[in-house]
Amino acid sequence: MAHPTDWDVEQYRNEHEPPEHWRLCRAFILAHKSDYPEARLVCLAQCFANMEFLGCRYPDETMQLVRELSAGIADDYRREKQKKIQRTFVRASDAAEAKVARKRISYDTDGGPSAKSYRLCDDKPVGNSAAFILVEYGDVSVDANPVNRLMCSSGFCKVPVKFDMVGDVCECRVGGDHVGTGRRPEGTSNSAKGSGAKTAKTLAAAEALATLQGQCYTIRLKTKILAEEDVARGELVAAEGEAAQKVADGVGGKLLAMMGWTGGGLGKQKQGITEPVRLEEVVGRQGLGSEKRTVTREFKDKTELRLRAYASKFQERDLSFSNEFSNEERKEIHSIAHRFGLKSKSYGKGEERFLVVSHKFNPYHLLQYLLATGGQTDKYELIPPKTEQSSREDSSTAEKVSSVICLT
After folding, report:
1. Given Cys at both, which of 79, 135, 210, 361 links 366, Cβ 3.0 to 4.6 Å?
2. Distance set, CA 238 to CA 234, 301, 354, 384 (Å)
3. Domains and CATH numbers, the chain
4. Is pLDDT above 90 for 84?
C-alpha cells in the first residue's frame, strides 16, 4: 500500500542536530517515504539514529525492523569514520552489570580491532581501569591537581579510585588495578593525614594520570554552557492583558459585544475587573499579601511543553533560562526537568542567577558519540590515548613533579 509522499522531510530536522546525523536520518526517511505513514516513518528514523549514534536498544521486533530498513544506508558513513578513528560499542547494560559485579566489561567492537582505551586486545587480565575515562573540565582548581582530576574523572565514569597508604608508600588503584605509586619524602611526618602522606598521595595520582593517559581516552570540556539563546520569561508567562484578550475573543466576549460591550470593565462606570480571576498556588510559607511571583498552571504547562520537546531529541547544546525567573519558577523548572530525566543547574547570585538544563550523558555513550563524530564537537573534544613515547615523556614529567614536591 502506497502512502502519501507530498510532505516535507526538512520539517523534522532539529536545529541543533549535527549535519552528519541529519544526512543519515534524511536518507532513511526518503528511502521508505512511500512504504510507511509519515508519523511511523519519522519514529523509525529516530530509532535508527539513536541506535547508530548512541547505541540505544529497543524491543527485538523494532530493532530487527530498523536493521532491515537501514541496510546499506549507513555503510558509507561507517567506512568514513573507521578511517579516522576506530569505533567501540559499549552496551549500557554491560556497563551497569560490571559496575555492580566489579568485573571487567565485555565490549562489542563490531568485529574490528578494539580501542586502546578499553585494552580489549590485551592478553593481560585487567580490572575496571580498562573502562576509565579521563576528563578535563577547564577548571584550574581541578585540572592542575592530579588527585582532584582523578576523583572528578572517577565520578564521571563511575569507576572507583582508591588511595592506600602502606608504610611510606601510597598506592593508587583504579577499579582494582594498580596504576600509580608515591613515596612519602624522608623526614616528613608519619601521620596518615600529615604533609608527607599528602605528598605521597599527590605523587601516586600524578603517576596514575601519566599511566592512564597512555591507555585511556580523555574528554575535554571546551565550555560549561553551550546555548544559542536564553529562554525569556515572556515565552512561558502570559503578558499583561493577554488573558483578557482571550476572553474578548471567546464566546462570552462575542455575546457581550452583541449587547453593546466595547471592552473594559463591566458596570455603569466600567468599574468591573478586566483580568479574569486566576487560580494561584501558595508556595512554601508564603502568606497573604505577599508580592512574590506565584507559579501558575499556564507557566507549568508551557515549561513542560518546552522541556518535553528538548528531551525528545538528543543534542549536546544546553537549554538556558534567563535571569528573569523568580526562585519559585526556577524551582518548578528544576522539578519538571528532573521528571524528564534532564540535568539542571543554577548559576550566578541574586538578580544575575540563571538556570541551565542539559541532557544527561552515559559516559560510554558520550565516548561513542564523539568517536562517531570524529572527536570534535562544539562542546567536547576527544583526546585519544597517547603513544608509548608520549607516556614515557609524561612519566618523566611526573618524576620532575616528584622531585619538585620533595624539595618543597
Report:
1. 361
2. 7, 12, 20, 50
3. 9-84 (no CATH), 96-217+387-407 (no CATH), 225-236+296-360 (3.30.1370.50), 238-276 (no CATH)
4. no
